[in-house]
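ok so I'm stuck.
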Amino acid sequence: MSVDPEALVEMLRERLLVVQQLSAAQSWNLLNRQLAGGAEFEIQRIEQEIAATGGSHALTDAIEEAHERLEEARAGMATCDAQCAALERSLEELDRCIATGR
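replied:
not stuck anymore, here's the structure
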């Protein structure tokens, strides 16, 4: 089947855009994973300090803040995961169209 060169170029441009968006979403996901890891580490540190010295208002505030950051990072990861899945489906569809020349 003959493919219109202009249509093929447009599909390839669209594919490049989707790949760039996927790369950006994966980068945000990596950042969120790093933020979550940092928050988890901080929670462990505060819990150890509470166990060693007893609780205080400052430690309670610090652990609540770390838990909030952890939840925000996890929510960000979930959003990025959904975005990546949708972009991967778009990429697969574009690849099929390019392969079949439609």
